[in-house]
Amino acid sequence: MNKTNRILAAVLVVQLVLLAAINLWPHSESKAAGGALVADFAPDSIMHIQVTGSDETQVALEKTDNGGWVLPAYDDFPVNASTVTTLLSGVQNLTTDRLITESASSHRRLKVADDEYERVVELTASGGATTKLYLGSSGSGSTIYVRLDGEDQVYLESGLSSTSAPSDVSRWVNTLYFNAASDQITSLTLTNANGTFDFTKAGEGWTMAGLADGETLNQDTFSTLLSQVTALRLSKPLGKTAQDTYGMDAPQAVITLHVMEAEAAPAATEQAELSTSLLPSTEEVPEATIAPTATPVMVEHEYTITLGAALDDGVVAKASNSDYYVLLATTVAGNFTAKTRADLVTAPPVATESAPESMLPGLTPEGTEPVALPGVTQAPTAEVTEPAATLPATEAAPESTPAATALATESPAS
Question: Model's pTM, two decimal places?
Fold first, then answer.
């Protein structure tokens, strides 16, 4: 083989290597314009959604006849329509604009493989056709890698994310389970293993039954309790059917509230009777009298919230105005099941009297006998005598003053 042939052979080898690298190695992002990733996708035609998470958690949603969405595994618990709309709109906006790779060997690294992914989203249309998408790891910025089932191509997308397709049930529902206006509550009773606590609204504050002299209700503690019960959030729906494991026959706590709520009063029915058949044709038909606007009437309603057994992932709860049993987070339920009287009541201050300084141990007030202390032997009081003052013998007597001399020489009156 001459030199020219050797050069040509080497060039051929290089070309073959480059061709293999192009086919096997992930492509750099392509900016070429493309079409929709899911052709002819119609969000309104979707009747069933199933999402599987990387931890194999799964949630299924179904569309109802009236166009709403529910969770069939939880006795058709309602789903937030906005969450469904966000997901379906995101799928509709997926494009093939930014191709990342066509190599199946890159699927696991990008987390869009059949057995390694962030989310698997399956969308079933009314005709039975199913679209299956693999949502992978995040790319640059707010983008993720997406692959359509049955294809090797992976695309970088910005209109969809894993949070748009949650596999956690609670992310699909309205978690506000019980709600009431705290300023319209007139009384509240909490019963748990520590007793029954009755609270009644008194003016702008609250009072508690059974307070002893000097005791007061801790208004800050009660205000926190009230806000917790009037905006009670679930962690997961359970369904409409009671189970023995729910422990509702021996609840951990029962909360009863009386709430003033507005109801529309029946409108006055002052309406002029129209009888055109009896009026002459020349007379005008009288106009109907406009009925006055109905004034809402405040009506008191009673609601009860029962807290049952503690399960692995929360505490069972059931509100009297809901058909559904739900789970509360253990920390949320603990605000009611573990509440004690000491948490709610402020005890009166303990009066302390200090002894006067003269009555301290070892000291007695002047003119009184010493106080005998238990276990202490009092020493006898020593009697102190002052010695008479004497002048030294060598000390000269003081000189007499002139007045004293004059007095000594004066003769007494005879």
Answer: 0.71
